[in-house]
Specification:
The protein has helices at residues 2-12, 29-33, 62-73, 80-94, 114-120, 124-138, 163-170, 181-186, 200-213, 232-236; strands at residues 40-41, 53-59, 105-109, 143-145, 149-151, 174-176, 189-195, 224-230. Helix 9 links the parallel strand 7 and strand 8. The radius of gyration is 17 Å and the shape is globular. The protein is α/β, with parallel strands linked by helices and 240 residues long. The protein has ten helices and eight strands. The longest helix is centred in the middle third of the chain and has 15 residues, at 80-94. The chain has one domain. The N and C termini lie far apart (49 Å). The chain is 41% helix and 15% strand.
Length: 240
């Protein structure tokens, strides 16, 4: 019932900007503008082996960080729309080639741990991926969210772990749901998430997709990923 309460609460309780707290708007114009990019290549340092090319819409700091946390941890579900629009911009930058209008571009979200989904009442990356697919379709790109990644074992909470420990924590943790392999092999896919910090989750998600393909498809040798935000240092590394 928690998800139901969160949906209704947004209609009857006073709202404040998720970025700066300004009253009477879920997202003010200034904070919304910080999500609008332009998207740029983001590379964590150190960069984990197997990480696909990643594009981020914004820097994970200040108002952008507050908006993402409001959506993820405080149940400000109305922010999924603008966050999805920001992710859609990063997806466009990440696409290795122009999408085929005859087939959908698949947005594959990195899944949250089941216990986190239960605690929050929703899966943030999945919700944002759905909103991004809607935003892409509105601008002429045939896209759909495809949440086919699953955790095959329990993982520890990533917060507070070093980059090396995050890699060890996520190693072999994800798999593709049974029956989805053929669909993934037939269509272009972009991995998506709300935030990239060390890149451990995206690297593991990419490994799981490659494993599901069994080497039969060349699509996954040029896999790409898109996120709403990444730490500022991830962008600065690209200029060195």
């Amino acid at each position: 019932m928690r998800w139901w309460w969160r949906e209704i609460a947004g209609l009857v309780l006073p709202v404040a900007c998720g970025g700066c707290g300004r009253p009477r708007t879920p997202l003010c114009e200034e904070c919304g503008g910080r999500l609008e990019g332009p998207p740029a290549r983001a590379r964590p340092c150190p960069e984990p082996r197997g990480l696909p090319v990643v594009f981020a819409a914004a820097r994970y700091e200040d108002a952008v960080r507050a908006v993402l946390l409001a959506h993820k941890e405080r149940g400000a579900l109305g922010l999924a729309g603008p966050l999805g629009a920001a992710l859609a911009g990063a997806v466009r930058a990440a696409m290795p080639q122009a999408p085929d209008e005859r087939e959908p571009l698949l947005l594959v979200p990195v899944p949250s741990a089941p216990r986190a989904v239960r605690a929050r009442g929703h899966d943030p990356a999945r919700r944002i991926a759905v909103a991004a697919a809607v935003a892409l379709r509105r601008t002429g790109t045939y896209a759909r969210a495809l949440p086919v990644l699953r955790q095959r074992r329990t993982v520890a909470d990533q917060s507070g772990l070093t980059a090396r420990r995050r890699l060890a924590n996520m190693a072999g943790a994800l798999e593709v749901a049974s029956g989805a392999e053929r669909l993934l092999a037939a269509h272009a896919a972009v991995l998506v998430d709300d935030v990239m910090t060390t890149g451990a989750s995206l690297a593991e998600a990419a490994r799981a997709l490659r494993a599901a393909s069994g080497g039969r498809s060349s699509r996954y040798t040029r896999m790409s990923a898109a996120v709403v935000a990444a730490p500022p240092l991830s962008f600065e590394t690209n200029r060195n």
